[in-house]
Amino acid sequence: MKVRVLVRLKPGIMDVQGAAVKRALAGLGFSELKDLRVGKVIDVDVADATPQEARTRVGEMCRQLLANPILEDYTIETVDDLAPREAGR
Amino acid sequence: MKVRVLVRLKPGIMDVQGAAVKRALAGLGFSELKDLRVGKVIDVDVADATPQEARTRVGEMCRQLLANPILEDYTIETVDDLAPREAGR
Fold first, then answer.
1. In angstroms, what separates the C-alpha of A15 from chain B's closest C-alpha?
2. Digit-coded pLDDT (tens) for B34-79
3. Which listed residue, A10, A11, A54, A59, has the most CB atoms within 10 A of its CB?
């Protein structure tokens, strides 16, 4: 079961990397850029049978290691969420 | 228009960070982990009117700055792709 985890800085936290990338893009002429933030995507493949089981276990991984709960929020997406849309692209 | 960019190492490229995280999780008892890879998510808000325009401009950003074409692949997802699914969660 493939699961995608998105780990992002919480809204109030200054995103230094994002600000630097935004400034660099503005320097390249991308003036239409209103906001840019950088986070992590973690693609996990777990042996769990059901999306619900996988989601639960990956949630534990996030709380124990993948995300820093002081600074970061995480979102878990299973392939069930993603596959039909990706196929459509 | 909000656009999400996922930047990941190409399949053949060794993911040192992912391997380290995978080993750390195995040490915490997550033995069901088959594979784990770490990439970047870049959340961009651009002033373009249509999803198609936004996708084109963000594609240019990826080619010029956001992704290293030697090592990395990128995927662009517009909020149109994502919103109904996120609302359903």
1. 11
2. 999 999 999 999 997 788 999 999 999 999 999 999 999 999 998 7
3. A54
Q: CA of B60: which chain A residue's CA is closest?
A: A30
The domain segmentation of chain B, as residue ranges, is: 2-12+39-88
Of the candidates A42, A22, A43, A44, which has an alpha carbon nearest to the alpha carbon of residue A31?
A: A22
pLDDT, residue B5, reads 97
pTM: 0.87
Q: Is B49's Cβ below 8 Å from some Cβ in A? A: no
CATH architecture of A2-12+39-88: 2-Layer Sandwich (3.30)
A70 min Cα distance to partner chain B (Å): 19
